[in-house]
Specification:
With about 260 residues, the protein is α/β, with parallel strands linked by helices. The chain has two domains: about 200 residues, NAD(P)-binding Rossmann-like Domain (Rossmann fold); about 35 residues, no CATH class. The protein is about 45% helix and about 15% strand. The chain has a seven-stranded parallel sheet, sandwiched between helices. Bound molecules: nicotinamide-adenine-dinucleotide (NAD). Nicotinamide-adenine-dinucleotide binds next to helix 1, helix 4 and helix 6.
């Protein structure tokens, strides 16, 4: 399928991460101009240098949990690239553990990045997206549509993303601005590797094995790749996806489809 992308400007937050970098590479391969934001300055610079061989790249170190930094990222896009056609909100952080052991600091960090940060990136991109009839693609999660034990803060943040998406889709529809959320299951990225390391006790590989054990594919289960998520996001950001807005699109090997009887 040929999808026109050249001359369009795509803003990606969390661009230095597993999914964000795959998204940036996919849009760069199609010739889109990129505006990349991430908290990790070193990894962001490396990615920007790699992609500069393919397209025009503007990179900005930023903390999306600070609304002023979200505003600055969108202003940079408007001033340096002249427009925003697609905003991909991929910045995110993970925590897990019993709710009764959860601190206010954990709550503030996860909600601050995953939900508040996403909201304010949308908020400051909207005036530009209205000019281009552009779109917002949020990286939500399977955890935004199903509950799991000991992940209440993360699922609260991603559940917020799901309904933020639906409300924005309706609010922005008269301006032909779309808003969708992709809901991945387990994607093999630094986040998932960090989960296994930080929460897998003395058996990080066992942590990952346990995740796969719940997949409907059984012994044939595998993790999703960041490139598979990026391909979906690339399609959703294309004119061919014009009728798709307000949708929560699962990419999870069916793990959110229903209860599995063992
Ligand atoms: N990996 C998975 O299994 C999985 C599954 C479902 C959803 N997700 C979601 O996908 C998105 C991307 O995750 P990933 O797996 O690529 O993780 P990742 O850790 O590889 O990338 C996340 C990126 O976000 C950046 N970031 C963190 N806090 C930030 C902040 N305050 N401001 C700006 N940037 C910040 C990090 O530096 C990192 O580069 C996240 O929203 C995550 O919740 C991931």
């Amino acid at each position: 399928m040929t999808i026109e992308t050249g001359d369009r400007t795509v803003v990606v937050t969390g661009a230095a991460g597993g999914i964000g970098a795959a998204v940036a590479r996919r849009f760069a391969a199609a010739g889109a101009i990129l505006v990349l934001g991430d908290l990790n300055a070193v990894a962001l610079e490396e990615l920007a240098a790699e992609l500069a061989a393919l397209t025009t790249v503007h990179a900005l170190t930023c903390d999306v949990s600070m609304p002023a930094e979200c505003e600055n990222l969108m202003r940079t896009a408007a001033e340096k690239a002249g427009r925003i056609d697609v905003l991909v909100n991929a910045a995110g952080v993970w925590t897990e553990g019993p709710t009764e052991a959860t601190s206010e600091e954990q709550w503030d960090r996860i909600i601050g990045v995953n939900l508040k940060g996403m909201f304010f990136c949308c908020r400051f991109a909207i005036p530009e997206l209205k000019k281009t009839e552009g779109c917002i693609i949020n990286v939500g999660s399977e955890a935004g549509i199903t509950g799991t034990p000991e992940t209440a803060v993360y699922t609260a943040s991603k559940g917020g993303v799901s309904l933020l998406t639906k409300s924005l889709a309706i609010e922005l529809a008269p301006d032909l601005v779309r808003c969708v959320t992709v809901c991945p299951g387990d994607v093999m990225t630094p986040m998932l590797r960090g989960q296994a390391r930080d929460f897998g006790g003395d058996d990080p590989k066992g942590y990952l094995r346990q995740l796969l054990a719940s997949y409907p594919q059984g012994k044939k289960a595998r993790f999703i790749t960041p490139e598979e998520v990026a391909e979906l996001i690339f399609f959703l950001g294309s004119p061919a996806a014009a009728p798709i807005t307000g949708a929560l699109i699962s990419i999870d090997f069916g793990t959110s489809a229903g209860y599995r009887y063992d």
